[in-house]
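In line with agreed milestones, the collection of sequences with tokenised folds has grown. A representative record is reproduced below.
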Amino acid sequence: MGAEERSPRIAICPGSYDPVTFGHLNIIERAAAIFDKVVVVVSTNTDKRSTFTPAERADMLRKVTAGMPNVAVDIHEGLVAEYAKTQGACTLVKGLRAVTDFEYEFQMALINQKLNPELETIFVTTDMRFMYLSSSAVREIAKYGGDLSDFVPPEIMGTIAERYHNHPSFTERSKGYDD
């Protein structure tokens, strides 16, 4: 008998990624090391007002994951549990920065499992270097023309800076940003 062929292990990394940060990228890289395929899904959060469109966020993600052959990027508006079924994914990977993230993510994991009983959620703690980092902090720094180099990959700094270029405080402080 030959070796039994197994199905590829596919994981979904859903998030708003508005914009993607080094913290997000750390979780994606770690998921890519575990799973055969990782689909990074830009999802919409109706409770949040987005700075970047889903297409812009997906474009930024494609730029920063270009060197990861087993990572794909997609956009989905709707239930992540249902999307996972369409991709043949059995796992959601969610990053946690602190205990405060866990309560919400735990609730979502239970709901997703109710909607799709074959779907497991794995929580990955963010690397300590990025525990403080959030997309909202990046947006605030960008709004006032601060240096983003410790927070986001260089491939997308220009895109983020351009979005805030017309903000008065950005134009006064942003002498060092180039595309």
Q: What stands out?
A: The domain at 10-129 is CATH 3.40.50.620 (Rossmann fold). Helices lie at 22-34, 54-64, 80-87, 99-115, 135-143, 154-164, 168-173.
